[in-house]
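Below is a concrete protein record.
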Amino acid sequence: MDVFLPIAYLRNQFIPFSEANVSIATQALNYGTGALGGLRGIPDPQDPSQILLFRLERHCQRLSNSAKFLHYDLSAIKIQELIVDFVKKNKPEKSFYIRPFVYSSGLGIAPRLHKVEKDFFIYGLELGDYLPAEGISCRISSWYRQEERSLPLRGKLSAAYITSALAKTEAVESGFDEAILMNSQGKVSEASGMNIFIVRNGQLITPGFEQDILEGITRDSVLKIAQDLGIKTIERPVDKSELFIADEVFLSGTAAKVVSVKRIENYELPESYLIAEKIREKLVAITENRDPNYSDWVYPISIN
Protein backbone atom coordinates (compact mmCIF):
# COMPACT_ATOMS: atom_id res chain seq x y z
CA MET A 1 0.00 0.00 0.00
CA ASP A 2 1.33 3.45 -0.94
CA VAL A 3 2.35 5.69 1.94
CA PHE A 4 1.69 9.30 1.00
CA LEU A 5 3.52 12.24 2.52
CA PRO A 6 1.23 14.05 4.99
CA ILE A 7 1.28 17.54 3.42
CA ALA A 8 0.20 18.47 -0.11
CA TYR A 9 0.04 21.74 -2.03
CA LEU A 10 -3.20 22.77 -3.76
CA ARG A 11 -4.87 26.08 -4.64
CA ASN A 12 -1.94 28.18 -3.43
CA GLN A 13 -1.71 26.63 0.02
CA PHE A 14 -0.21 23.71 1.90
CA ILE A 15 -2.88 21.46 3.37
CA PRO A 16 -3.17 17.89 4.71
CA PHE A 17 -2.95 15.35 1.89
CA SER A 18 -6.31 13.89 2.95
CA GLU A 19 -7.97 17.25 2.26
CA ALA A 20 -6.38 17.84 -1.16
CA ASN A 21 -9.32 17.08 -3.43
CA VAL A 22 -10.75 18.35 -6.72
CA SER A 23 -14.28 18.37 -8.14
CA ILE A 24 -15.52 15.51 -10.31
CA ALA A 25 -16.34 18.21 -12.90
CA THR A 26 -12.71 19.35 -13.15
CA GLN A 27 -11.82 19.69 -16.81
CA ALA A 28 -8.46 17.91 -16.49
CA LEU A 29 -10.17 14.87 -14.96
CA ASN A 30 -12.61 14.69 -17.84
CA TYR A 31 -10.32 15.53 -20.77
CA GLY A 32 -6.75 14.80 -19.70
CA THR A 33 -5.70 18.45 -19.87
CA GLY A 34 -2.89 18.14 -17.37
CA ALA A 35 0.89 17.85 -17.33
CA LEU A 36 2.91 16.02 -14.75
CA GLY A 37 6.37 15.92 -13.34
CA GLY A 38 8.06 13.36 -11.17
CA LEU A 39 11.30 13.49 -9.23
CA ARG A 40 13.01 11.47 -6.55
CA GLY A 41 14.46 12.49 -3.24
CA ILE A 42 16.30 10.75 -0.42
CA PRO A 43 17.50 11.63 3.07
CA ASP A 44 21.20 12.46 2.77
CA PRO A 45 23.09 9.30 3.88
CA GLN A 46 25.96 11.50 5.14
CA ASP A 47 23.89 14.20 6.79
CA PRO A 48 20.46 13.37 8.30
CA SER A 49 19.60 17.07 8.48
CA GLN A 50 19.43 17.25 4.67
CA ILE A 51 17.22 15.94 1.90
CA LEU A 52 18.73 15.43 -1.56
CA LEU A 53 16.69 15.98 -4.75
CA PHE A 54 17.98 14.68 -8.08
CA ARG A 55 18.17 17.18 -10.96
CA LEU A 56 15.54 19.48 -9.49
CA GLU A 57 16.17 22.36 -11.87
CA ARG A 58 15.84 20.17 -14.95
CA HIS A 59 12.59 18.64 -13.72
CA CYS A 60 11.11 22.05 -12.97
CA GLN A 61 12.07 23.39 -16.39
CA ARG A 62 10.48 20.41 -18.16
CA LEU A 63 7.23 20.86 -16.24
CA SER A 64 7.22 24.58 -16.99
CA ASN A 65 7.65 23.76 -20.68
CA SER A 66 4.86 21.17 -20.51
CA ALA A 67 2.54 23.75 -18.93
CA LYS A 68 2.92 25.93 -22.03
CA PHE A 69 1.01 23.34 -24.07
CA LEU A 70 -1.91 23.91 -21.66
CA HIS A 71 -1.70 27.70 -22.17
CA TYR A 72 -0.44 28.02 -18.60
CA ASP A 73 2.45 30.31 -17.74
CA LEU A 74 4.15 28.78 -14.71
CA SER A 75 7.84 29.51 -14.28
CA ALA A 76 10.42 26.87 -13.41
CA ILE A 77 11.62 29.09 -10.57
CA LYS A 78 8.13 29.17 -9.02
CA ILE A 79 7.80 25.38 -9.31
CA GLN A 80 11.18 24.91 -7.68
CA GLU A 81 10.39 27.24 -4.78
CA LEU A 82 7.17 25.37 -4.04
CA ILE A 83 8.82 21.94 -4.24
CA VAL A 84 11.52 23.04 -1.80
CA ASP A 85 8.85 24.32 0.61
CA PHE A 86 6.93 21.07 0.15
CA VAL A 87 9.98 19.01 1.17
CA LYS A 88 10.69 21.22 4.18
CA LYS A 89 7.14 20.84 5.45
CA ASN A 90 7.01 17.06 4.98
CA LYS A 91 10.52 16.20 6.23
CA PRO A 92 10.48 12.73 4.61
CA GLU A 93 12.49 10.03 6.39
CA LYS A 94 12.64 7.48 3.55
CA SER A 95 13.29 7.47 -0.19
CA PHE A 96 10.37 9.28 -1.80
CA TYR A 97 8.82 10.48 -5.05
CA ILE A 98 7.32 13.91 -5.71
CA ARG A 99 4.49 14.44 -8.19
CA PRO A 100 4.00 18.08 -9.25
CA PHE A 101 1.02 18.51 -11.60
CA VAL A 102 -0.35 21.43 -13.63
CA TYR A 103 -3.89 21.16 -14.93
CA SER A 104 -7.05 22.83 -16.19
CA SER A 105 -8.96 23.29 -12.94
CA GLY A 106 -12.08 24.93 -14.41
CA LEU A 107 -15.45 23.19 -14.23
CA GLY A 108 -16.93 22.88 -17.69
CA ILE A 109 -17.88 20.45 -20.42
CA ALA A 110 -16.09 22.01 -23.39
CA PRO A 111 -12.68 20.47 -24.19
CA ARG A 112 -10.57 23.59 -24.60
CA LEU A 113 -7.48 25.31 -23.22
CA HIS A 114 -8.47 28.96 -23.62
CA LYS A 115 -10.52 30.79 -21.00
CA VAL A 116 -10.20 27.95 -18.50
CA GLU A 117 -8.76 28.31 -14.99
CA LYS A 118 -5.47 26.55 -14.33
CA ASP A 119 -3.94 25.31 -11.10
CA PHE A 120 -0.91 23.49 -9.75
CA PHE A 121 -0.61 20.85 -7.05
CA ILE A 122 2.12 18.76 -5.43
CA TYR A 123 1.95 15.53 -3.49
CA GLY A 124 4.48 12.85 -2.65
CA LEU A 125 4.82 9.27 -1.49
CA GLU A 126 7.45 6.95 -0.12
CA LEU A 127 8.96 4.93 -2.96
CA GLY A 128 11.61 2.23 -3.04
CA ASP A 129 12.25 0.11 -6.14
CA TYR A 130 9.57 0.68 -8.78
CA LEU A 131 10.57 -2.50 -10.63
CA PRO A 132 12.46 -5.59 -9.41
CA ALA A 133 16.13 -4.63 -8.99
CA GLU A 134 17.28 -8.08 -10.14
CA GLY A 135 15.87 -7.49 -13.63
CA ILE A 136 12.58 -7.75 -15.48
CA SER A 137 10.80 -9.38 -18.40
CA CYS A 138 9.16 -7.40 -21.22
CA ARG A 139 6.75 -8.01 -24.04
CA ILE A 140 6.31 -6.05 -27.25
CA SER A 141 3.05 -4.19 -26.79
CA SER A 142 0.21 -4.38 -29.28
CA TRP A 143 -0.29 -0.67 -28.57
CA TYR A 144 1.82 1.93 -30.36
CA ARG A 145 3.39 5.10 -29.02
CA GLN A 146 1.53 8.27 -30.05
CA GLU A 147 2.93 10.48 -32.81
CA GLU A 148 4.16 14.05 -32.45
CA ARG A 149 1.71 15.14 -35.16
CA SER A 150 -1.24 14.13 -32.96
CA LEU A 151 0.08 14.92 -29.48
CA PRO A 152 2.86 17.27 -28.29
CA LEU A 153 5.28 14.60 -27.10
CA ARG A 154 7.82 17.18 -25.91
CA GLY A 155 5.44 17.71 -23.02
CA LYS A 156 4.77 15.20 -20.26
CA LEU A 157 1.00 15.37 -20.70
CA SER A 158 -1.37 13.28 -18.63
CA ALA A 159 -3.55 12.42 -21.64
CA ALA A 160 -0.68 10.47 -23.20
CA TYR A 161 -0.57 8.01 -20.33
CA ILE A 162 -3.68 6.11 -21.40
CA THR A 163 -1.42 4.33 -23.89
CA SER A 164 1.10 3.61 -21.13
CA ALA A 165 -1.66 2.21 -18.92
CA LEU A 166 -3.03 -0.01 -21.68
CA ALA A 167 0.44 -1.32 -22.51
CA LYS A 168 1.44 -1.91 -18.89
CA THR A 169 -1.74 -3.83 -18.02
CA GLU A 170 -1.51 -5.88 -21.21
CA ALA A 171 2.07 -6.84 -20.30
CA VAL A 172 1.36 -7.73 -16.67
CA GLU A 173 -1.81 -9.67 -17.46
CA SER A 174 0.09 -11.75 -20.02
CA GLY A 175 2.85 -12.65 -17.57
CA PHE A 176 5.46 -9.94 -18.08
CA ASP A 177 6.72 -7.10 -15.90
CA GLU A 178 6.79 -4.32 -18.47
CA ALA A 179 5.87 -3.35 -22.04
CA ILE A 180 7.99 -2.05 -24.90
CA LEU A 181 6.12 0.16 -27.35
CA MET A 182 6.95 0.59 -31.01
CA ASN A 183 6.25 3.82 -32.88
CA SER A 184 4.08 4.21 -35.96
CA GLN A 185 7.11 3.59 -38.19
CA GLY A 186 7.72 0.18 -36.63
CA LYS A 187 10.80 1.24 -34.67
CA VAL A 188 11.40 0.82 -30.94
CA SER A 189 10.17 3.87 -29.02
CA GLU A 190 10.09 3.39 -25.24
CA ALA A 191 8.59 1.38 -22.37
CA SER A 192 5.31 2.27 -20.67
CA GLY A 193 6.93 5.00 -18.59
CA MET A 194 10.67 4.66 -19.24
CA ASN A 195 13.24 5.14 -21.97
CA ILE A 196 15.08 2.14 -23.40
CA PHE A 197 18.76 1.42 -24.10
CA ILE A 198 20.52 -1.46 -25.77
CA VAL A 199 24.19 -2.42 -25.81
CA ARG A 200 25.80 -3.92 -28.89
CA ASN A 201 29.54 -4.48 -29.30
CA GLY A 202 30.34 -2.23 -26.37
CA GLN A 203 28.27 0.69 -27.70
CA LEU A 204 25.30 2.17 -25.86
CA ILE A 205 22.39 2.76 -28.25
CA THR A 206 19.05 4.46 -27.61
CA PRO A 207 16.22 5.78 -29.80
CA GLY A 208 16.51 9.50 -30.57
CA PHE A 209 13.86 12.17 -30.06
CA GLU A 210 12.59 11.65 -33.60
CA GLN A 211 11.32 8.21 -32.51
CA ASP A 212 8.45 9.79 -30.53
CA ILE A 213 10.08 9.27 -27.14
CA LEU A 214 9.71 11.34 -24.01
CA GLU A 215 12.66 13.61 -23.34
CA GLY A 216 13.62 11.66 -20.24
CA ILE A 217 15.79 13.31 -17.61
CA THR A 218 17.19 9.99 -16.38
CA ARG A 219 17.84 9.14 -20.04
CA ASP A 220 19.86 12.32 -20.37
CA SER A 221 21.73 11.45 -17.17
CA VAL A 222 22.54 7.93 -18.43
CA LEU A 223 23.95 9.29 -21.70
CA LYS A 224 26.17 11.81 -19.92
CA ILE A 225 27.39 9.24 -17.38
CA ALA A 226 28.18 6.75 -20.15
CA GLN A 227 30.16 9.34 -22.09
CA ASP A 228 32.14 10.24 -18.96
CA LEU A 229 32.87 6.54 -18.43
CA GLY A 230 34.30 6.33 -21.93
CA ILE A 231 31.38 4.34 -23.35
CA LYS A 232 30.47 5.28 -26.91
CA THR A 233 26.83 6.42 -27.15
CA ILE A 234 24.64 6.50 -30.23
CA GLU A 235 21.12 7.93 -30.64
CA ARG A 236 19.45 6.27 -33.63
CA PRO A 237 16.44 4.21 -34.68
CA VAL A 238 16.35 0.74 -33.12
CA ASP A 239 14.71 -2.25 -34.80
CA LYS A 240 12.64 -4.77 -32.86
CA SER A 241 14.94 -7.58 -33.93
CA GLU A 242 17.91 -5.79 -32.33
CA LEU A 243 16.29 -6.22 -28.93
CA PHE A 244 16.50 -9.99 -29.20
CA ILE A 245 20.22 -10.11 -30.11
CA ALA A 246 21.48 -7.23 -27.95
CA ASP A 247 24.26 -7.80 -25.45
CA GLU A 248 22.26 -5.81 -22.89
CA VAL A 249 18.87 -4.11 -22.71
CA PHE A 250 17.88 -1.81 -19.88
CA LEU A 251 15.27 0.82 -19.05
CA SER A 252 15.69 4.20 -17.38
CA GLY A 253 13.27 6.53 -15.64
CA THR A 254 12.83 8.61 -12.52
CA ALA A 255 10.79 5.95 -10.74
CA ALA A 256 12.58 2.93 -12.25
CA LYS A 257 16.10 4.45 -12.17
CA VAL A 258 18.11 1.91 -14.20
CA VAL A 259 16.70 -1.61 -14.48
CA SER A 260 18.02 -4.46 -16.61
CA VAL A 261 15.79 -6.47 -18.94
CA LYS A 262 16.43 -10.22 -18.65
CA ARG A 263 13.84 -11.49 -21.13
CA ILE A 264 11.88 -10.05 -24.06
CA GLU A 265 8.99 -12.17 -25.29
CA ASN A 266 10.47 -15.70 -25.40
CA TYR A 267 14.05 -14.51 -25.91
CA GLU A 268 16.39 -14.85 -22.94
CA LEU A 269 19.03 -12.11 -22.86
CA PRO A 270 22.66 -12.53 -21.70
CA GLU A 271 23.24 -12.77 -17.95
CA SER A 272 26.11 -10.23 -17.95
CA TYR A 273 25.08 -6.59 -17.60
CA LEU A 274 28.44 -4.85 -17.23
CA ILE A 275 27.52 -1.50 -18.75
CA ALA A 276 24.12 -1.25 -17.08
CA GLU A 277 25.69 -2.06 -13.71
CA LYS A 278 28.45 0.53 -14.14
CA ILE A 279 25.89 3.20 -14.98
CA ARG A 280 23.55 2.14 -12.16
CA GLU A 281 26.36 2.25 -9.59
CA LYS A 282 27.48 5.68 -10.77
CA LEU A 283 23.90 6.98 -10.72
CA VAL A 284 23.41 5.80 -7.14
CA ALA A 285 26.64 7.50 -6.08
CA ILE A 286 25.53 10.74 -7.75
CA THR A 287 22.05 10.75 -6.18
CA GLU A 288 23.66 10.19 -2.76
CA ASN A 289 25.95 13.16 -3.41
CA ARG A 290 29.09 11.02 -3.27
CA ASP A 291 30.49 12.16 -6.61
CA PRO A 292 31.77 15.76 -6.64
CA ASN A 293 31.92 15.77 -10.45
CA TYR A 294 28.11 15.74 -10.54
CA SER A 295 27.35 17.86 -7.49
CA ASP A 296 25.33 20.28 -9.63
CA TRP A 297 22.81 17.46 -10.28
CA VAL A 298 21.97 17.21 -6.57
CA TYR A 299 19.93 19.84 -4.74
CA PRO A 300 20.36 19.67 -0.94
CA ILE A 301 17.56 20.95 1.30
CA SER A 302 18.07 21.57 5.00
CA ILE A 303 15.11 20.31 7.05
CA ASN A 304 16.26 21.56 10.46
